[in-house]
Structure formats: C-alpha cells, structure tokens
Predict the structure of Class I SAM-dependent methyltransferase.
Amino acid sequence: MAVDVFGKAILDYHSGETTGEIHTFSSLEEQDSFPVSHLFRSYDSMPHLEKKALDLCRGRVLDIGCGAGSHSLYLQSRGFDVTSIDISPGAVQACKARGLSNVFESDFWQYKGETFDTLLLLMNGIGIAGQLSKLPHFFQKARQLLKPGGQLIFDSSDIIYMYEQDEDGGFWVPEDIPYYGELTYEIQYKSYKSAPFAWIFVDFNTLEDFAEKEGFGCNLVRKGDHFDYLAKLTVEV
C-alpha cells in the first residue's frame, strides 16, 4: 500500500506539530526540503505568482492537488464555488477539518461528472502529467472538465538551469532522456518515504506548442524570480 507522506505531514501540522519538514529527492541527484508550514500559508504570505493565479480565477473552480487547502480556502472565503481534489486521504481529512465545503479524495485522471470555468493547478501542478508524451492526454482530460471558454491556470518552471553549462552558454543534457524537464521524485517526512514517481517541469515555449496543438490559447501571464512562470490557457471555442 502506498504511503500517504503528504497526508501524514499535513495532519501532524494541523494537530499542532508545526516544526516538521518534507524532504524531496530527484533523479538529478538534487535534495531539498521545505517546512510543512509552507502548505498552510495565508494569501498574504504566498508568492506573487500564486496570488496572481488566485486573482485570475473565475466562475466554478476545481483546485487540483489541493494539498492542505490553502488556495481553496482563500477562494471559498471570497465567495467562489470551489471544488477541491487530492489523492491524499490525509490531506482531504485535514481540508475538511479546516472548513472546506467541497473536497474529495480523487485522482485528476479519474475525476468526472462536472465541468468548471477554472482549473487551478499550483505548485507546478502540471507535473502530474509526468512525461512530455503525456501532455496531450493531460490537455484532453482538462478539456473534458472545462466549460466552453474555460481556463486552465498553473505555474511551472524551466529547469534547464539545473544542468551543467558549458563555456558557450549551452547546457549539457543527457542524450538518454526524452526531455530535460522529466524527473523522478521521492518524498520523505519523518520515517515515511514515498515510492518513486514521475514528475515534469515544462518550459513555456514547449508548453505553448503542446497547448496550441490541443486547441488551447496559451498566455504567459507573468515570470517569476527564478525561471518560474504563471500561465493561463483558454479553451478555444
């Protein structure tokens, strides 16, 4: 049975254990960590790209991979009709305890039955596509969940900077990987560690190419401070 690492961390924090950290390990041999409190941040403490994403939401919103529910709670407080989904049972339990009205344990790929004006995927939520070759399937599923003229809002990063750079300014990318943004991750909280899973970061030009082929208008809303960006994609009617 898969270990609900995020769920355990989120429930611990919600129960008052506020000093925990989540550790990440990537196939680029990069190790990083962030405090669980980051998942509970208020609107005022969110990065400017996230604030802008929330300000762009309209109509019925589906928050995909809602985590501890911070984005959904903000939207709910502003009067939005927001539905939140996450594959983590613990995260969903915490979101309900925090006061979210419509939160469900569900996988993006399996969710159906409703349509929305806005799909929201923050903290590189498009990473759930896993591989570049699966982006068309991602956009097709997103279209099924969107009303005519609906929008898809998410942030991502161009991680080419993580590769070694040569004297001419180019980057050394291994020839045996299909796309440099495809990574394998593991996450750990305390003694709980996940199985490896595929995750993708998509540079904006590549995103635009795939989105337009699948019938989405693609707009670069804003660039962040470190190779990250916010995008808004609109279903072309």
